[in-house]
Amino acid sequence: HLEESGGDLVQAGGSLKLSCVASGDTICISTMGWFRQAPGRERELVAVLHNSPSAATYYPNSVKGRFTISRDNAKNTIYLQMTNLQPDDTAVYYCAIPGQNVWGQGTQVTVSS
Fold this sequence. Notes:
Helix content is 0%, strand content 49%. It has 113 residues and is mainly beta. The strands form 2 sheets. Strands 2, 4, 5, 6, 9, 10 and 11 form a 7-stranded mixed β-sheet that branches. The N and C termini lie far apart (34 Å). The model has no long low-confidence stretch (mean pLDDT 93).
């Protein structure tokens, strides 16, 4: 079970930090991802954090340099730090364990211009 939080309404140029707490899943041994889906658009990947020990990350060009994924194994939580948010970042953000097809319910991020 995954539960996201931290979504909010922010102005363009602002920042938000999303959290995703995993219950019953051990995130340190799982590759984790953040995805988003805007109205009328397909769900898209915005960040991946591979499992230990590599802990490699991946970001698409649309968010590279603005978004950072991280994890706190002790809290079984992953984060998505988002900076310089733009209206195009408006979407429902989901965390997931893609390899197990486990998804959270999503948290709304709205960026006003």
